[in-house]
Amino acid sequence: MKKKNVNFWKRATNVFHGVFFCKKNIKRDIIIIVVAIFFIIIIIIGINYSLGISFEKRFSKKITDSYISGKGMALEEDIYHSVQEIQRNIDIGEWKNYQSRWYGFEVKYPDSGWEIPRSFSGIASSKWEYRFQFRKNAENIDEQNPYVGFDVVVYNLTKARELSDTEEFPQLKNVDLKEDDECETINGHIIETGDYPAEEIYIPPADNCYNSTLFFSFTKGDYSYNLVPAVRDGFSLLGDPMIEIADKFPEFFSVVSTLDSIDIVRPKPKPPVPKITARHPVSYKNINGKLVCAKKNDKPSKSAKDKKKHLDLECCLDPDEYPNPWCYYDPEKYGKYLK
User: Fold this and answer.
1) What's the per-residue H, E or C state across the chain?
2) CA 62, 64, 70, 75 torsion: positive or negative?
3) Residues 266-311 pLDDT 10s
């Protein structure tokens, strides 16, 4: 029996070597291997694509079901888990870090395919004080994708005390709704989606009071900070912002996970230059902007005319004169009179 087994494995080995290591079959084997690898790659891509589609459908279905059931919007728990899933699928390890010490915040943005951030102050009519723009490179923008980047908008609480005072706060669908108690606040639309300062402000299209919107906001010290997706000029968004951003700009949900406050550091203001009220000297020489004594060989001595101590009006300081603040006195020559 043992001998038969040995003969079987010997014959199987010979067949394997004859098929895959025979010089006559090398070309055929290479073609088989290449075709096999190609089909494996196609299968992997198909699996990843189906996972992405299933996530989008699952995300959309949860929100749609909540409308049908009469809840008016997706449950906070569903939104929390959906945002967390997006964040887990995006690698931010190579993203660049941006800091504003003046306004006390930091945020990360993709390293590849993005422009250098720009910032500018608001005009007198603006509610916001400063805006920081983060934009994709022109060649990195899909013509069918309305999202081109994001903004961090900074508000001073002296001018925008409440979230409703910011320009990102949604408008009422109808002016008559101002009198509706149900539309007085956006309670239930402010959602915590992770362990970071900013909270999500999400108004779905099915809301009875406000136009749909999605942005993040947090407040610290004297400022509030709104993180807003930037839409290309000429595009109007009609769908659910939660679904559209998850589909076309999922990086936005990863950006918010990096938005955090830091200590405000500003340079100390220079002390004001004291105004000179003393009488201007009547005789002097100007050298490189400094008023100095015009006498070639000035020898400091007491005045024969004025016995009292008086103000120097020639930039040639004498022992019985007060230094004139308009003048420059050489320390080697006049140093002992300047003490």
Assistant:
1) CHHHHHHHHHHHHHHHHHHHCCHHHHHHHHHHHHHHHHHHHHHHHHHHHHHHHHHHHHHHHHHHHHHHCCCCCCCHHHHHHHHHHHHHCCCCCCCEEEEECCCCEEEEECCCCECCCEEEECCCCCCCCEEEEEEECHHHCCCCCCEEEEEEEEEECCCCCCHHHCCCCCCECCHHHHHCHHHCCCCCCEECCCCCCCEEEEECCCCCCECCEEEEEEEECCEEEEEEEEECCCCCCCCCHHHHHHHHCCHHHHHHCCCEECCCCCCCCCCCCCCCCCCCCCCCEEECCEEECCCCCCCCCCCCCCCCCEECCCCCCCCCEECCCCECCCHHHHHHHCC
2) positive
3) 998 888 888 888 999 999 999 999 999 999 888 888 877 766 888 9
Q: How many CB atoms lie within 10 A of CB 116?
A: 8
Q: Could you give the angle at the alpha carbon of 36 between the alpha carbons of 35 and 40, nearest 5°? A: 115
Q: Is-contact 220 197, C-beta < 8 A?
A: yes
How far, in whole angstroms, is CA 41 from its chain's centroid?
37
Per residue in 18-35, pLDDT (tens digit) is 555 555 556 666 666 666
Place of tokens 């500003």: 266
What Å distances lie between residue 208 and 67, 137, 157, 191, 221, CA to CA? Answer: 12, 38, 29, 18, 33
Give tens-digit pLDDT for 27-83.
666 666 666 676 676 665 555 544 444 444 445 455 545 443 444 445 778 888 889
pTM, two decimals, is 0.65
Q: Cα-flanking dihedrals φ and ψ of residue 228, to 5°?
A: -130, 135
